[in-house]
Every structure is written in structure tokens, then in C-alpha cells.
Amino acid sequence: MKKILAILTVIFCFGVTAAFAVDGGALYKKRCAKCHRDGSESSKSGGGVVLKGQSSGEIEMKMNGYADGSYGGKKKKTMIRIASKLKGQEINAIAEYIGSM
Ligand code: HEC
Question: Which domains does the chain have, with CATH numbers?
Fold first, then answer.
């Protein structure tokens, strides 16, 4: 009986984690790819930045920097609007995804 309970608990936990985990790749495609394409280039409205090759730590730092106003170039207004709408967990997941490109 104890064993079955343990197994059920594990299955339940996996289910819950999967349901709440943020999919960085899906978020990227939905919220970032319009301007940053596949990360190796950016459209004109994407400021021409290249995200591919940057570490997840760098991306996270820059995103948080846009959100709190401590980072950015000439076109930072665009990114401030985007970054400040994302939750920390979402920034983290997207940064992980970009870091693994
Ligand atoms: C409407 C177009 C647009 C969208 C959508 C967009 N960005 Fe950007 N992004 C820009 C522009 C423009 C810049 C350059 C801003 C500047 O001058 O600082 C930029 C810069 C960045 C930078 C800084 C790059 C560097 O090395 O300095 C990061 C990181 C970034 N974007 C990540 C993202 C992520 C992650 C998303 C999705 C959540 C996203 N962007 C969505 C337009 C966009």
C-alpha cells in the first residue's frame, strides 16, 4: 500500500510540474520570434541584435535590465514594454531556451 501511494505521489507531482512549467521555446516563438527570428538575426524592428550565442545568464540579465531600466540601447523602449510584461519565471524559461540555441 505504501509503495502504491509513493508511486501515485510521484506521478501526481510530475503531472503538476508539467502543467505549470513554462515552455521557453513556445514563449519565444510566440513573443520574440517576430523580431528576433531564430536568434541568428533580427528584423529591422528587432534592432538587428543577435541573440544566438549569448548565454542564458546574459539574456536574463539584459531582460531584467530592460524591465528595471538599467539596460538598453537606442531602441530600448520596445524591449522595456516587452520585458516588463513578463514574469520572472517566463524570463528565466526564455533565457534558458535562448542559451541553448
Ligand atoms: C517588436 C520587436 C521585438 C520583439 C517582439 C522582441 N524584441 Fe527583443 N529587441 C528588440 C529591439 C528593437 C532590441 C534593441 C533594443 C535596444 O536598443 O536596446 C531588442 C533587444 C533585445 C535584447 C538585447 C540584445 C543585446 O545583446 O543587447 C534581448 C536579450 C532581447 N531583445 C530579447 C527578447 C526576447 C526574449 C523577446 C521575447 C520575449 C523579445 N526580445 C521580443 C525588438 C523586439
Answer: 23-99 (1.10.760.10)
